[in-house]
């Protein structure tokens, strides 16, 4: 039943994605974060107090998320085992973001190919945190490829990893960790203190999944007909070329597979952030690299599901 729930949820994500008007736990987690953050900012004034308050916020949001997910599942299973199974499938389905990420990346790609530069900049702004108003087509393409590569970890591999470790409640708690980092885990002055704990604990949560992504995306590159040797080599070589200890693993692997260069300087909240380059500039990056990256993401996602299913079966057998 457990593996069936995983596979059914994965197929639902593949077919449906995230319809914008359907209820989604991440929106509820985001609303909780905003509520707790407002309370922390009212009470905490100094940087030290904001760091402590940010830690309390992390504990509250992650703890409440896990508790509610666990309680809902127990209640649903008590009412009816099949109803509990359906609730579990729904939870897992909402944790996976593969189809949603692919669709949004394709929207930017279509705007680059057939729309206006302004349209592609606007659609890119929906999926990245950097300033997009002055970006040119190669920079827009690079941002999309980076986002798809990085979110292969956040949106698929890590949720499945925590699903293996602790079922849907722990995977939902991971999603709260990741949402906290997405909302407050910035080095910008407004968030530097209150988001410090969220940013660092997101790094901890993604430590193993990011390194698994190096292997899974390299295998995906081989299956997609790209250069697996360069994917492995550059993914490992450039693993430290990012302020995050995790992001360069998937980005470097994809950069190596495609023979393009990612990373480099970007603007966030009006401030220039200097970042090292990732990969070798063997080919000029083009919109064609977006569907190539999406295909590698889907292949890596399927490989991750298969890997964790095999581990689950091995542990169950033991």
Could you spell the SSE succession in H and E letters? HHHHHHHHHHHEEEEH
Which word captures the global form?
globular
Mean pLDDT: 92
Q: Strand count, sense and closure of the main sheet?
A: 2 strands, antiparallel
Give the helix/strand class.
Answer: mainly alpha
Number of domains: 1
- Percent of residues in beta strands? under 5%
Termini gap? 18 Å
Q: Rg to the nearest angstrom? A: 20 Å
Pathway: Cofactor biosynthesis; adenosylcobalamin biosynthesis
InterPro entries: Cobalamin_biosynth_CobD/CbiB (IPR004485)
Transmembrane segments: 56-76, 156-177, 296-315
Membrane topology: Multi-pass membrane protein
Q: Any overview of this molecule?
A:
It is a multi-pass membrane protein. Converts cobyric acid to cobinamide by the addition of aminopropanol on the F carboxylic group. This is Cobalamin biosynthesis protein CobD. InterPro entries: Cobalamin_biosynth_CobD/CbiB. With 318 residues, the protein is mainly alpha-helical. It is built from twelve helices and four strands. It has helices at residues 2-16, 25-43, 47-79, 81-95, 98-114, 117-125, 137-184, 196-205, 207-223, 228-237, 248-258, 289-317; strands at 262-263, 266-268, 271-273, 277-278. It has a two-stranded antiparallel sheet with strand order 1-4. Strands 2-3 form a two-stranded antiparallel ribbon. Helix 5 runs antiparallel to helix 6 (117-125) and helix 9 crosses helix 12. It is globular and about 55 Å long.
